[in-house]
């Protein structure tokens, strides 16, 4: 009986071949490397030393953000973002990547301070300042809400997101998660894969992991959210959902290198490139 069933099943599957899934286009190679902040000698900053082994965060309080925004047809649409739990989830994702993140204790100075603010450039959804002892992450919920309204129609028309499963508010939450993961990544010393782009803090940029041709997921550190969504859609072969806004494996490794280089990582660092000229950099080439 078992044999007969097997034959029937295999005949049925032969009669109805599964259509091949379209092969996703690889992203440009300059969008697949993992880059980070370096010291003057061309080695990555070692954040474990900067914060004496403690990696702590503080999130500014924020209730539900609500704003009426004019859509493409001129009618006002209401966008609601509950940012704090999304930021907490983003921190949990980085913690699961192997970083020892914990909430700051009262009276302690955090390593990362995450808050909200106004950013002049409308395309900037977040900003991170890594110059001081505290790395300051600022999210612009106003710009995120506007970008969500601006992109939602195009993204659903292109099939990048499915409007039956992802509402405008869901999409705004996905953009907030993406921005929080990305900006915390900057706070952990990571830069855009295609850096240097002239806006990278004037700091030395080191390549932590070289470019590859076929990543399964785009890097969370891609600087343009629309490009991230498009590449995620290509890689998945289906519309992007809230569960797809995640770090890829190389983002996780890159952040661990920035936190604490170990022997295995030093091998990778031999491939390091100096992006900005300096005497030590030129000498090592
Ligand atoms: Zn960025």
UniProtKB/TrEMBL annotation:
Coiled-coil regions listed in the entry: none
Annotated segments matching region Disordered: 17-37
Keyword list, A-Z: Signal
Segments of skewed composition (Pro residues): 17-29
Transmembrane parts of this sequence: none
Record's signal peptide: 1-15
InterPro entries: MetalloPept_cat_dom_sf
Organism name: Roseateles amylovorans
Keyword Signal: yes
Keyword Signal: yes
Official protein name in the record: Peptidase M10 metallopeptidase domain-containing protein
